[in-house]
Amino acid sequence: MQTAVIGGGAAGFFLAVNLKEMMPEMGITIFERSQRVLAKVAVSGGGRCNCTNSFGGVGDLSAVYPRGHRLMKRLFNGFDYRDAYAWFERHGVPLVTQADGCVFPRAQDSQAVIDCFLRLARQYHIAIKTGCKIQSLPDVAGYDFVAVTTGGSPRGQGLRWLSGLGHEVESPVPSLFSLRIDDSRLTALQGLVVSQATTFLPGSKLRGSGPLLLTHWGVSGPAVLRLSSYAARLLADSGYRLPMGINWTGLAEHDVLAALSAAASREPQKQLTTFCPLGLPQRLWHYLLEKSLAQHAQQRWGELGKKDVNRLVNILTNDVYQVAGRAPFNDEFVTCGGIALKAVNMATLESRHVPRLYFAGEVLDVDGITGGFNFQAAWTTAYTVARSISLAAAPSSATACPVSAPPHSR
Description:
Structural class: alpha/beta
Low-confidence stretches: none
Largest sheet: 6 strands, antiparallel
Strand content: 15-25%
Order of helices and strands: EHEHEHHEEHEEHEEHEEEHHEHHHEEEH
Mean pLDDT: 95
Number of strands: 16
């Protein structure tokens, strides 16, 4: 029996290797559109490949999977982050878990993951064909099973042939991207990192927390990337022109007020500019003082009036900027949208429209925030498809027949 895997990325290789381990007699061919496989893995995580996450403190999967959390919860019963961790270690890629829960190869190099996949592909005689653009089922005629793992399709072209087969498609838009802010005073602070900030869209419940990086075009870092994931469709619908708030401290207003009041009591003779009780970078602290207090920014802590304190608290916790677009670089690695989950069997990820056609990875309408959650979705969905195909191909299953389009789509 033969399986065609359309897409030479992380999900495609993981699916192929696991399927071969489940069914050594299965012939498998990976078709990759470009001349290079696993290119996205190479640059992920700053070149280190954030393989998965410890999921520590994640009480609800909707917090890390804005889309597809119910599917992930179900599929985690068969293969979750603990299984992924064990899989890589078992296949010769030792892992380490950071304090923030992110899991990386111990080598701190994505090449360790790439080398693992390529080694296993050679060992299991998995065929790899590059430069192959699959645009219809006849392009893979004769295969008993077809798995689509083509990843995201930001402009939607790669989903058209699948839509033509009857699959519902959620319109794809970028996710996990930096934001451009045309404010010269803010961008002059480029290079500064705030260790724990919260970004938000005023008037909504959408929040993103974590480190925040100031750049020459605006803002980046986990706090921004997570917000862009939660608000992917809202930002796209606005043309990436919305107000965005920043809580520079990550603390509640009353906690910030308490910290400022304590500073005024302890250090009344110190100038505001020389003492920041909240651990912010000095240049950022000076910028926020001038923005909130103007000519009063040079006064001493003991001279702060109630109105000054309230203005400073407001700037520290509710500093609003106008988003002027996505970052000027194509730095987004994830797409929100894809094959609608109602188009697949939620237990097997087989198409509801074309028998023996399966989907795994980012081609599905499943995506997560930054931190290894998207790779985990790739491993989980790919493993699910590999198991589903192995069960469907078992001798007790119905007689195999090549995958073909339904009559209405021909």
